[in-house]
Amino acid sequence: MKITYILYGIGLGLLLIVLKLIEYQFLVRMHTFEIYGALIAALFLGVGLWAGLQLTQKAPAPSVIVQGPPPFDADKVKALGITQREQEVLELITQGLSNQEIADRLFVSLNTVKTHSARLFEKLDVNSRTKAIHRAKELGVIRVN
Length: 145
What we know:
7 helices
């Protein structure tokens, strides 16, 4: 009796598999265009993702940082009492930037840059930007290019 149930179950299972294959073939024949379209879309999606990743990769950062000569003589800067922010302002003045451009670079107000410049002029004992650059180079407060 058990063998009959088992054989009957296997027979129904095989019949179900045959019917599903027939249904699958019918489905494939009816929707061939859609299936091929989906395969081509998946292929282009894969190629697009790969190309996008390849084109947007950043170059690896160098693992070794090479430092050049120090930009200034720290002892002389300390002796003159020049602060780090005043030194930054002096470097930007040396590059030929206006007060407004310096303010934009350092994210401070125009009046703050003017205050730092005035204090620099006092500490360097000068009264103009050109003289400040010349005096700073003489003292070794900035690097001579």
